[in-house]
Amino acid sequence: MSLGSQSFVDLNSVVQQVDAWLWGWPLVGFVIAVGLVLTVALGFVQFRYFIQSWKYIFYPAKSALDGKQTENYITPIQAFLNTLSASIGNGSAAGMSTAVVGGGPGAAFWVFVLGFLYMVIRYAEVYASMEYHEVTPTGATRGGPMVYMKKLPGGVFLAYLYALFCLALSLVTGNAMQCNSIRLGIERITGISPLVTAVVLFILLLYIMFGGATRIIRVSERIVPIKVGLFFITTFIVLAYYYQSLFATLKLIMMYALTPEAVAGGVVGFSVQQAISYAMSRSLNATEAGLGTAGILYGSTRGKNAVENSIMSMASSFISSQLVCFLLIVVLVASGVWNSGLVSTQLTMAAYETVFGTFGSIVVAFLTISFGLGVLVAYAFIGRECWLYLTRGRWPFVFTLLYCSMALFGSLSKVDLIWNATGIINAGLIGINLVALIYLLPSIRKGLRDWELAQKK
């Protein structure tokens, strides 16, 4: 092994250790505490308005601006679809495989339970983004953590820090990692050279992004039904194939999730702490609840329906966490491959191959491509908003070239280190964002109460 590769391995190991330390009990406890505080303060809004959140998807709150989308703002339903697109990516497929390998089958239970805390966090960040939005000199509507953080003492610095890290997240996690996964998926199916895939993605992004925010949003929302539909159809086929063992699977998940002492599995034992820690770090990375990215999308909408749209946004968190992430782990456990020694996307492929045979790897490859494309396009909008905030609306073409160039880099490079560093970036974003939400909680709570009073009248 060369000195350079040895240094890479050492750095990768350090990053993994820092990631594990950050997602230990302090951060896990903090996220749970904030979720519980928001749940109680907002009167268990995620349960009381669970049905209503789905209703608003199919019957969105009316606004005088409906049907008048321009470059300056997007509609709430477009914000919902792009939030869903950004939160269902390859972080779900690879992340849930890592969760079950590192935390055991019990991670599925905690992904499902913690998902209800993610829902109330999603409500709070979307409401704050819509309540404290701003209109730029060009007439564009902008919201998100970098806007509402300015309400905090010293918030201007936090706002710029958040925007900077979120910009990095869009370039790395939302772009390079997704392009790398897309390239691997296409290469697995067709054998096409990585360079060809890289150039195609580069040209595709140029076309989409030079069309401005309007084209980015419209392309993104058209990808969502394809990737969501493909996932649920193939996953339900696998679950139907293993229907006789589903009860035993759920029983195994509960045993691993709730047994206080470490439960043996493979060559190591799994404790409740491991299950919770892996479930939270990987599912938060997948669902993006607490990262504030949903707030950036909803903050770009207009209208006076902040509460209705915040209620609607909770459904996106439920879909990505309690449905996509939870079902992925159930598939891995039910198929019996969870402790086979495989990791990441290879483990997911092995699960689908038990039903589809060698065609299973093609199924997962298609999922990888559709997941990656959805995230790639959605983050083009999120990253663009962060760039415009940091540069005060200047040089959008520079960001376009930078974002498209990252697609080339991601398609042609190894991104193992970047995958491991994602947890560290997410920990920082979540920590800053949740502090802001607690500070703004009185306003968030008042907004919900005022709306409820108006509904009664």
- For the record, the CATH architecture stands as Up-down Bundle
From the spread of the alpha carbons, the general shape counts as globular
Number of domains: 1
Tell me the distance between the termini.
Answer: 73 Å
What helical percentage do the residues reach? over 70%
Strand elements, count: 4
Q: List the total number of helices.
A: 20
Largest sheet: 2 strands, antiparallel
- What gyration radius follows from the Cα positions, in whole Å? 21 Å
Instruction: State mean pLDDT (0 to 100 scale).
Output: 84
For the biggest β-sheet, the strand order reads 1-2
Tell me the series of helices and strands, N- to C-terminal.
HHHHHHHEEHHHHHEEHHHHHHHH
Structural class: mainly alpha
Task: Outline the structure in words.
A hairpin with a 5-residue loop joins strand 1 and strand 2. Helix 2 packs across helix 7 (107-131) and helix 16 (344-356) runs antiparallel to helix 17. The strands form 2 sheets. A two-stranded antiparallel sheet has the order 1-2. The chain is built from 20 helices and 4 strands. It has one domain (12-456): Amino acid/polyamine transporter I (Up-down Bundle). Helix content is 77%, strand content 2%. The chain is mainly alpha-helical.
In brief:
The protein has 457 residues and is mainly α. The chain is 77% helix and 2% strand. The radius of gyration is 21 Å and the shape is globular.
Give me some keywords for this one.
two-stranded antiparallel ribbon; 2% strand; single chain; 20 helices; Amino acid/polyamine transporter I; 4 strands; 457 residues; mainly alpha
